[in-house]
Write a structure and sequence with these properties.
122 residues
Amino acid sequence: MSKNIVQLNNQYIQDENQRRRYLEEERRKKNRFMGWVLILVMLLFILPTYNLVQSYQTLLERRQKLVELQEKYDELSKEKEYQENLSKRLKDDDYAAKYARAKYFYAKEGETIYNIPDLLPQ
């Protein structure tokens, strides 16, 4: 027992089919538009995020360089202080004589010099 179902094909059915197709097309257009808006929003967030990450990496590099430069500055300050102190002490003739004898192995007549490493007058 098979039943044949026949659809009416009157003006109302045609209008409803056309309205359904129109609504479906409008929904597709709306979805396509929202997809493009979503892509645009993603791009608008990606670009600043990339810039922020790049700026953060630059900041970390500069902090590291600052630490290195601070260490170098401290080292050079100590060296400068040592050199200034040495120059003040070398103005004294007795100290200058001791320094020259120790560093450059100068000797008076009849003296024998024995080299002891790292034994310079301070």
